[in-house]
Design brief:
Layout lengths: L1 E6 L5 E6 L5 H14 L7 E5 L3 H4 L1 H10 L1 E5 L9 H12 L11 H17 L11 H5 L3 H18 L33 H4 L14 E4 L1
Parallel strand pairs: 3-4, 3-5
Antiparallel strand pairs: 1-2, 1-5
Helix pairs in contact: 1-3
């Protein structure tokens, strides 16, 4: 069982562990380690999770209260209410290194996940954040990187305009992140992380914005 926490803003996996079963104790342990590692005890954090028992257990609730983390849960009977985690697990299962025959032991699973997390955070150029790595966006480096890319594209277009039928690729940094954005046709507010935050999630830095979890 993979327990992980990731930032909805940067997509960085900020905490993870692999166990032979899912419990509230393990979930609280991973969350505490993630918050301490990111040095964000004083930040306004919201944890969006599914409605499973471990995430609503007394141990997890008590741990979140001690860490100052606000709870947010998926809507009832909505299995894909966390698109960020859904996308992460799809990437995980479709990388070429995914073991088609499964893992021989829990140690083997932990070693594989460790390598995947390292690759995902530091090498994987995420399409949803303009092809920077989650680590780069998490540290707030994406603005400068994307500005340089925009400059390179503009110079290339100016040098050979006949190769361009329109403008260059959009390299503007991704703005605020919403778990379930407001829909113009309904006029209803989104549900989950965005509603629980005191303000829109934006910017960079340690565990910025919000966290999301799935297992």
């Amino acid at each position: 069982m993979l327990e992980h926490f990731s930032s909805a803003l940067s997509r960085k996996i900020v905490g993870w562990e692999v166990h032979d079963r899912e419990t509230a104790e393990f979930a609280a342990q991973v969350l505490r380690r993630a918050v301490l590692a990111e040095a964000c005890l004083t930040s306004p954090l919201v944890l969006h999770a599914d409605n499973g028992g471990p995430m609503k257990g007394a141990t997890m609730k008590g741990g979140m209260e001690r860490l100052g983390v606000v709870a947010s849960f998926s809507r009832p009977r909505v299995s894909n209410d966390n698109p960020f985690s859904e996308a992460l697990f799809r990437t995980c299962k479709y990388v070429p290194a995914w073991p088609a025959k499964g893992f021989g032991s829990i140690e083997e699973a932990r070693a594989w996940v460790s390598a995947f997390v390292r690759w995902y955070n530091t090498e994987h150029r995420h399409s949803a954040i303009r092809f920077v790595t989650p680590d780069q966006r998490h540290r707030g480096e994406d603005r400068a990187l994307l500005a340089r890319r925009h400059q390179v594209y503009e110079l290339a277009r100016a040098a050979r305009p006949e190769r361009w039928s329109g403008g260059t690729r959009n390299w503007r940094p991704v703005g605020p992140v919403w778990l379930n954005p407001e829909r113009p046709d309904t006029g209803c507010r989104g549900h989950g992380v965005a509603d629980a935050l005191p303000h829109e999630a934006g910017g960079g830095g340690p565990m910025a914005g919000s966290a999301n979890r799935a297992a």
